[in-house]
Amino acid sequence: MRPLIEDALDLFLYAPVGLLTSSLEDLSPDDLPELAEKGRGRIGRLLSNARVVGHLTISMGRRTLESELRRWRPPPDAHPNGNSGAAAELPVESTDGPTRARRTGADAGLPIPDYEALSASQVVRRLDGLGPEELEAVHAHESSTRRRRTILHRTQQLLGREEPPGPGPAAT
To answer: Is residue 126 helix, strand or coil?
Structure first.
């Protein structure tokens, strides 16, 4: 015995499609199973074709998008702020390992190696050993790029321009 869903699909989906693909004069009441089979075959082919076209469309779209992204990617010597001569910090795709960030040209002039790759807390720990000119360079760079308040405040404290946090004045 066939499941009820199969009978419903035959009656309401496959038979009407089969009917549309058959000539009206060749029909008899006993043709329902044959019509359903024709409809099933026709819809199966249509779905198969739609699936192939869908995969092809997605594949071509992906290739087009990747091509456009490569076309619009800034050249290696372009800086995000418009300064030429400094490399933009973009992910570098590599087939032999994980993605890594490139070192920026501005990063090379800072007294802290791999500055752009460090978190604010890692930078702050390295500030104590810097001289005034180096602190000024870090402050200027941070002010014009990421503006991390922790680093900006600590450089100002070390330069003597800001009071370090601590207990307030003693009450008398």
So the answer is: helix
Which H or E run contains 91? Answer: strand 91-92
Whether 78 maps to a domain, the answer reads no
Cβ-contact 90, 72 below 8 angstroms: no
Residue 77 lies in a domain: no
Please count the structural domains in the chain: 2
Q: Are 65 and 107 in the same domain?
A: no
The reply to whether 85 falls in a domain is no
Q: Taking the chain, what is the end-to-end CA distance rounded to the nearest angstrom?
A: 98
Provide the domain limits for residue 55.
4-24+31-69
Q: Dihedral angle at the C-alpha atoms of 44, 50, 52, 54, nearest 10 degrees?
A: -150
pLDDT in tens, 104-159: 444 557 888 888 888 999 999 999 888 898 899 999 999 989 999 999 999 999 99
Closest C-alpha among 74, 81, 75 to residue 140: 81
pLDDT > 70: what percent of the chain? 70
